[in-house]
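Please, structure for the following, as tokens.
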Amino acid sequence: MRERDDLDAARLALPEGTQTVGRIRPNRHAGRIGVFVDLTSPYLGFVDVLHLPEDADRWPRAGVVTGFEVIQHRRGQVRLWPLDAGFRSARHRHPMTGEQWSASKRAHPVGATVTAEVTHVFRSNREYVVRLGEIWVGLSWTADAEPPTVGEVGEYTVARHAEATRRILLTR
């Protein structure tokens, strides 16, 4: 087993579903990949071009301070979702309607124990996906742990509901 590393530290400091504020950085690659964000932490934030408006003139400009939800971690980077709908792509559709989201939260309240099956494992950033009924949930493992196996069924705890992205977040 290895010791915990910077990826683990970022996940502890800014867990998925956390809402945070950041300042848009100047970006010499604007229009190509997305925008970088200085967070109120030692970690660099990033909003992928797919989450931003199709018209780059509507992207948040360098220096703008706005809110984000943490959606993923990559080595050296915290992936973000803009909370301001004006800074998001019109192409994006929530995975559930408001009514479906309400029903999902009632069916999976925070603190509940649920059973889910591992469907995908991504070793490069120590993430995996489990299927919880009709919902897919991303999780991660630490550097000092063994990765799960596809097909493995286990019990998880509903840790929180990420309202902005309508996601159920689980812990093992």
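The beta strands are 19-24, 34-39, 44-48, 65-74, 77-82, 113-122, 127-132, 135-140, 153-162, 167-171. The radius of gyration is 17 Å.
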